[in-house]
Specification:
The chain has about 260 residues and is of the alpha/beta class. It has eight helices and 15 strands.
């Protein structure tokens, strides 16, 4: 579904931005936008969370950085409406919540999505691409619509996955997505291209996705390790497996084995 709401900013107009993001990976794009001279009017991030079992609460990484930059922060997305008409564009990076229709009708939004849409719409696109054995992945600058990651794409970039871990890919894709976003702001977003092809969904990971099944082939075990948080059990105890690689065992019939560090 294509967004027929408010118009996107014109090239080199230095729009006044609202930035919606929460985790550490969303800090670098915020810094890049500010460094490029774009005016951050408001940051919307997840509410503070309790740290451990004590009484103290911690701000999200994006909130903490925004406060350092002197940008107003809110946990309520409807605060965007109170800032209109002071906002020309909403930029979303790993915010963690859907943008509701009444906001889409008022402010144009773009999103950095770390997959080659329409493959891997949803919550865990990098992890699902690794687990599925995809050869490549990428990042898209896309318009936000009411449907989950259904918006048309303004710009995209593709990268090989190889044996990269989820953290390595995430860092690479967010950096490339930030570059694309800055280019769009400088040169204009143009006419977005509707998604086409087979749609797949990147469901949120569960503990079972991270549990190593030693009956699987070595390459699949290595993929589970590369998404982070992999574990196995021994003697009733849960053991973390942070690293692993596939090696060749040369016998009369060559067999691939997964070698890990527990």
């Amino acid at each position: 579904m294509t967004n027929t709401g408010p118009e996107l900013p014109s090239p080199n107009s230095h729009p006044r931005l609202a930035y919606l993001g929460t985790p550490a990976l969303a800090v670098a794009p915020l810094d890049a936008l500010v460094a490029a001279g774009h005016d951050g009017v408001l940051v919307v991030s997840a509410a503070d969370k309790r740290r451990g079992r004590g009484p103290e609460f911690s701000a999200s990484p994006v909130k903490a950085r925004a406060l350092e930059l002197g940008i107003e922060v809110s946990a309520d997305p409807d605060s965007l409406l109170r800032a209109v008409p002071g906002i020309d564009l909403g930029v979303v990076v790993a915010y963690g919540r859907l943008i509701r229709p009444h906001l889409l009708a008022t402010i144009p939004f773009v999103n950095l999505h770390v997959s080659l849409l329409p493959r891997w719409r949803g919550a865990a696109p990098i992890e699902r691409a690794i687990l599925a054995g995809d050869i490549t992945t990428g990042v898209c600058v896309m318009e936000i619509t009411e449907g989950l990651d259904e918006g048309a794409v303004f710009a995209r970039s593709e990268t090989p996955i190889g044996d990269k871990t989820v953290d390595e890919l995430r860092h690479e894709l967010v950096a490339e997505g930030t570059r694309l976003l800055l280019e769009c702001l400088a040169s204009g977003f143009g006419t977005p291209v509707a998604q086409s092809g087979n749609v797949t969904y990147a469901a949120k990971l569960t503990a079972d996705d991270r549990r190593i099944d030693w009956s699987q082939v070595a390459t699949q075990i290595a993929r589970v390790i590369r998404i982070g948080g992999a574990f196995t059990t021994s003697g009733g105890k849960r053991l973390k497996v942070p690293r692993g690689r596939v090696v060749e065992w040369s016998t009369e019939s060559s067999t691939s084995l997964a070698e890990g560090e527990v």
